[in-house]
């Protein structure tokens, strides 16, 4: 059995990587990798999944240095990005929550995503995560085994 925090920490290792945009030859494909050893085992009925992804087209970051608020960077994922998770075993699905993480001088560095309350049936559950900006797409799957 794996605790909720442990499962989340393992699944956080899911990574969608790549570059936003695409080449002239057609759609780009985000590279997908896993860290750790799958399948993941849990006794949870619901769990959160999270990871990182390529920066989608249309993402922007703005630096604010106003005198009335602390200096900082604010980023927007843009309207072109969409993400979804699907439990292929149960047929349930939902939208990913997307946030842009900046690097250095307020430059979009990666997209952080999460899915809350992903349901698991007893036994093997195949979870697929997809992200697209209309030009670049990435998807990956992870096996989660719910043991009661």
What does this structure look like?
With 148 residues, the protein is mainly beta. It has one domain: Sandwich (Immunoglobulin-like), CATH 2.60.40. It is 6% helix and 53% strand. It is built from 1 helix and 13 strands. The strands form 4 sheets. Strands 2, 4, 8, 9, 12 and 13 form a 6-stranded mixed beta sheet that branches. It has a 3-stranded antiparallel beta sheet with strand order 5-11-10. A two-stranded antiparallel sheet has the order 1-3. The N terminus is likely disordered.
The helix content, as a percent range, equals under 10%
Distance between the termini: 9 Å
Number of domains: 1
Q: Which class best fits the helix and strand makeup? A: mainly beta
Q: What is the number of E strands?
A: 13
Mean pLDDT: 77
Shape annotation: elongated
Q: What is the name of the CATH architecture?
A: Sandwich
Low-confidence stretches: 1-26, 31-36
Classify the fold: give the CATH topology. Answer: Immunoglobulin-like
Helix/strand layout:
Elements (H helix, E strand, L loop, with lengths): L3 H9 L2 E3 L10 E2 L1 E3 L6 E3 L3 E8 L6 E5 L7 E5 L5 E6 L5 E3 L1 E7 L3 E13 L3 E10 L3 E11 L2
TL;DR?
Helix content is 6%, strand content 53%. It has one helix at 4-12, and strands spanning 15-17, 28-29, 31-33, 40-42, 46-53, 60-64, 72-76, 82-87, 93-95, 97-103, 107-119, 123-132, 136-146.
Keywords:
148 residues; mainly beta; Immunoglobulin-like; six-stranded mixed beta sheet; three-stranded antiparallel beta sheet; 1 helix; 53% strand; elongated; disordered N terminus
């Amino acid at each position: 059995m794996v605790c909720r925090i442990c499962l989340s920490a393992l699944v956080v290792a899911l990574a969608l990587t790549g570059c936003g945009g695409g080449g002239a030859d057609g759609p780009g494909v985000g590279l997908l990798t896993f860290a750790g050893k799958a399948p993941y085992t849990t006794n949870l009925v619901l769990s959160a999944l999270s990871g990182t992804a390529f920066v989608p087209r249309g993402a922007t970051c703005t630096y604010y240095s106003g005198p009335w608020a602390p200096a900082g960077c604010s980023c927007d994922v843009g309207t072109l990005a969409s993400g979804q998770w699907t439990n292929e075993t149960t047929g349930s699905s939902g939208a990913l929550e997307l946030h842009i993480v900046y690097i250095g001088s307020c430059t979009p560095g990666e997209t952080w995503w999460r899915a809350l309350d992903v349901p698991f049936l007893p036994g093997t559950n195949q979870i697929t995560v997809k992200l697209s900006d209309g030009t670049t797409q990435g998807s990956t799957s992870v096996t989660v085994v719910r043991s009661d």
